[in-house]
Amino acid sequence: MASDVGIANLALLKLGKNRIASFQDGSVVADIFVEQYGPLRDILLRMGWNFSRAYVSLAATTTAPPFQYTLAFNLPSDFIRLEWAGPAQNYGTLPPGTTQVPLTVLGMPGANLSDYNNALCQDYRVVGRQIWSNIGTPLSIIYHARITDPNMFDTYFVEAFAWFLAMELCETITGSNSKFPRMAQGYNDALAQARKFQALENPP
Known about the structure:
With 204 residues, the protein is α+β, with helices and mostly antiparallel strands. The chain is built from five helices and six strands. Strands 1-6-3 form a three-stranded antiparallel β-sheet, with no helix packed on it. Strands 2-5-4 form a three-stranded antiparallel β-sheet, with no helix packed on it. Helix 1 (4-15) packs across helix 3 (155-168) and helix 2 (28-45) crosses helix 3. It starts with a helix and ends with a helix.
């Protein structure tokens, strides 16, 4: 079972350093993790992992964008990265052996090619903590959420995250950058493995 301190200690093990008892044990290394663990986790989550994917429908706010777009939608509080946005879809129960592909996911999501010369290049855009859109309301989105419970982390994410922590904090913790190339290689290898097995989980 994964834990935040366990992941931090895995990174320290890769750096050849002693473990910490907790993020509040008063050591300099623990204080570094208190400051850096969350931001670095969120950076890695922005790459888009299957375990962080979330689906939600959003209602438009009462205040429209100033121009170009007609509707504004507040992003979820745990929003990390947008994967797709489109009109609400509800097909109900399909007959056995049949599949339905929404037209909105064919081609480039968010791209409007109906009028090549004059159309807006996107029918939605992330602006600050909102999505501005011309699609309509409610707006269905697939996004990647900020997952803070380490028990929800994919096994390959844990390994990649430990290497990422070791790489990013190498000089700060060890006082030297001599181990940085090894940490960077470990991170790249772990990320390649994660991508390989995550791709196998995705439907064709």
